[in-house]
Amino acid sequence: MIVDSDKDEKRKVEINSESGFNALKEVLQFKVVYWGPGESGKTTNYFRLREKFDAVKLNKGYSIETTDGRTLWQDSIRLSFYFNLKEVKFNIITQIVTATGQERFLSTREYVLDGADGVVFVADSDPEKMEQNKRSFRELSSFTHDKGIPYVIQLNKRDLENAVSLEDFKAGLGLPKTDEFDDGAPVVYPTVALKGDSVRRCFEDLMLQIIFNYFYN
User: Can you say how many angstroms the Cα of residue 20 is from the centroid of all Cα atoms in its chain?
Assistant: First the structure.
């Protein structure tokens, strides 16, 4: 993926999902957290990413679940990428974790978020889950508003017959009405995580934000 920044001088960043560690300038480590209400699809995103980036996994990953199969603590895996910046190759080690969406485990979510460089907020398209979406988003905002942590918003389960409209969803969360921000990034990423639709793009777009923050902010 190659993206042009809108800085004074045009720069190019390339992210590659290939292994390779020759002539590396530096190793950078980042943490990405998947956050959202219970059963919105955070763990499904995690499994799809494990599949899509299987060749660059540094560990097999692990999950800690309740007896009914829901995330108790966190799912976690580490991936290794490299990217080129002005003809210099860097290696990125990215830890991907999911925060439990169960409201009784609020304290664990805040702990999992600690040290995050970026967040994917995973919302549920079921209209009956809108209040949970809003509570979870407010909670995330309260934890991140003074830390400058970049995040992207994913509206999952778009294959539901009664899926909430993008317009109603954005209005409910107080998001811009436009489809894209000024830099061309989507305000909301519609996804079907079970099928892997847009899961990789959402993750890679967030990684580019994290990289730009690291070098240019």
Answer: 24
